[in-house]
Amino acid sequence: MSWNLFKRKMDESGVMNKKELRMMIGKRREEVDNAWIAEKSKQAQSRIMSLPEFAAAKNVGCYFSMRKEVRTDVFMGECLKLGKCLCVPAFDSVRGVYGLSRVTVGWTVGLGPDNVPEPLDVEWMDRRDVDLIIVPGVAFDGACGRMGHGGGHYDKILHGDFKGFKVGLAFEFQILDHVPMKKHDVRMDVVITEERTIKGMEHAG
User: What's 112-141 look like in SS3?
Assistant: First the structure.
């Protein structure tokens, strides 16, 4: 199925299952080159850093970007430059779940499960202390709904008593009219792309 046909199917039915969505978004990601990713990523990161919630945040969570994701290198560097406490996901082998680990200037990158980059030396941080967190996803929608890769790792970090400001980060082509969500799936406060900032209902106005 071509990307245009996929978009048309979404427009007509508004419904696709998560497996189909992940497959089609994955194919679309493979069509973009590194130069395009670098340019659009800088635009998106600039939008994050213009948020008042970012200016006010002392403890910031972010993902270490992988191939074909919106890059976070500029954003992470700015956090460290400003003296913010920066943390990234890391796998806690004792509990069998992902937590958040502090990182500092010159931190060393290792590889966790599924070759996901994470700090080589882990320093755990309480997720409840995070003021703002940047969250990746396969797709988002206009109501700040999020569909991840299926592992539920971020939903576990963001559930319940997590009070930090949640920022979904994606390319514009990852924004759909609707993504399927279940009760345990967590919505973002805003979703940012290289083109716009989408506000959730609580922050619209």
Answer: CHHHCEEECCCCEECHHHCCEEEECCCEEE
What tens digit of pLDDT does each residue of 178-188 get?
Answer: 888 887 789 99
How much is the mean pLDDT over the chain? Answer: 87
Q: What is the three-state SS of the chain? A: CCHHHHHHHHHHHCCCCHHHHHHHHHHHHHCCCHHHHHHHHHHHHHHHHCCHHHHHCCEEECCCCCCCCCCCHHHHHHHHHCCCEEEEEEEECCCCEEEEEEECCCCCEEECHHHCEEECCCCEECHHHCCEEEECCCEEECCCCEECCCCCHHHHHHCCCCCCEEEEECCHHHEECCCCCCCCCCCCCEEECCCCEEECCCCCC
pTM comes to 0.88
